[in-house]
Design goal:
The chain has 253 residues and is mainly α. It is built from twelve helices and no strands. Helix 5 packs antiparallel against helix 6. The radius of gyration is 20 Å and the shape is globular.
């Protein structure tokens, strides 16, 4: 595992191999990101710090409302025991019914579900869930693209779980997460921009009056039919679409 700034690494590759710029890459995925895809099996952004940041400060300040390391480790042991053998759906239902009586219990139970959501068992389930999205992976989707989506989606759902989000089996929410995951994989530079400016999603499909904050090299994507297909969830079996409100609420970057 390597912790690094994805955009900085992509720009570094692009600068080192600027001779490839005209032969590979596109507006939403410049050549530097292509090198990242070959170098790293999967990459994901860190979720925004919420309750975890509060807990961190609580430990520094020795707050009585925040569990210490020993209490948290015991809670993790208990959570693994209580949720052993349950698949991700069963584990989520268990946590919804019994989230835990203490802060340590609540965190530990969410962690246990998140780990299960990236297991091999969960990946097999995700393959079925994501089958309708194959049409949104590009003009000629290959097995590697589908595998990357399954891996990235599992991590995305795990991150949501750690944040206590989308624990119910809500198909619409899950489909939005899948659409956003595809957008990140196919157009990472645009995804980074939309993360900062969710309201710019409403400008997709137009060539006029784009906000000044939109970089010139991203302008062509605002009318790209493949991108619009992903944003609108335009494929058989998909009923959800990406919205600015979803981007504002998601922890995925």
């Amino acid at each position: 595992m390597i912790a690094a700034d994805r955009d900085w690494l992509a720009d570094s590759y692009a600068k080192e191999y600027d001779g490839f710029a005209g032969a590979a890459g596109d507006a939403g995925r410049p050549v530097g990101y292509l090198f990242l895809e070959k170098t790293f099996q999967i990459s994901t952004g860190l979720p925004r710090a919420g309750k975890q940041l509060e807990a961190f400060w609580g430990r520094i300040l020795r707050s009585a409302n925040v569990p210490d390391a020993k209490a948290l480790e015991q809670a993790r042991t208990d959570a693994r025991r209580d949720l052993a053998g349950k698949d991700s759906g069963q584990a989520r239902a268990e946590v919804l019914a019994n989230p835990g009586s203490t802060v340590a219990d609540q965190q530990a139970r969410l962690e246990a579900v998140a780990v299960e959501m990236v297991s091999e068992r969960a990946q097999q389930r995700n393959k079925h869930t994501l089958e309708p999205f194959r049409a949104l992976l590009g003009r000629d989707p290959n097995p590697r693209a589908m595998k990357r989506l399954v891996n990235a989606y599992g991590i995305a759902r795990g991150i949501e779980t750690l944040q206590g989000l989308n624990l119910e089996e809500d198909e619409g929410n899950e489909q939005q997460t899948a659409l956003w995951t595809i957008l990140i994989l196919r157009w990472p530079k645009l995804a980074g921009h939309l993360s900062r400016y969710p309201e710019h999603l409403d400008h997709l499909g137009t060539t006029t009056d784009l906000p000044p904050a939109v970089p010139a090299d991203l302008d062509p994507l605002f009318t790209d039919p493949d991108l619009l297909q992903v944003v609108h969830g335009d494929a058989e079996g998909i009923t959800a679409a990406l919205t600015p409100d979803f981007l504002r609420g998601t922890t995925l970057r």
